[in-house]
Design a protein that fits this description.
Blueprint lengths: L4 H18 L3 E8 L5 E8 L2 E10 L13 H17 L7 E9 L6 E5 L4
Parallel strand pairs: 3-4
Antiparallel strand pairs: 1-2, 2-3, 4-5
Length: about 120
């Protein structure tokens, strides 16, 4: 049975969060929305660095690699939402970065790629 895009997204974000925790990241927030501007899938700490993480998944290779879906337009949206997060939470003078976790679900078991400082 084919999974819905929503189910694939939720499952991929769960896998990504567990993956990050295993790597020693501290998850601060998941699915942060800033008005109508958009959403950041995971916000975490890697040591002292605040990391905004976009999770992209594909259940087939028809549309290419998942990380290719983080287009320049998506990057602008993520930056705007990250600024909103920092404004709301009074985050100042803190090193921040943007990572992407790509999840390939078309193999027998998920294959994950963590792209640190992706853009």
């Amino acid at each position: 049975m084919k999974r819905s895009a929503s189910a694939i997204g939720t499952m991929s974000e769960e896998l990504a969060a567990a993956f990050l925790i295993d790597k020693g990241y501290a998850i601060i927030k998941r699915n942060f929305h800033f008005g109508r501007d958009g959403e950041i899938d995971i916000i975490a700490l890697d040591g002292d660095i605040l990391v905004f993480i976009e999770v992209k998944a594909r259940s087939s290779s028809v549309y290419g690699l998942p990380e290719a879906a983080v287009t320049p337009a998506k990057q602008r949206t993520l930056r705007r939402v990250a600024r909103g997060y920092c404004y709301i939470n009074s985050v100042e003078d803190r090193e921040c970065r943007f990572d992407v976790i790509a999840v390939d679900l078309h193999e027998k078991s998920p294959v994950m790629r963590h792209i640190v400082n992706a853009f």
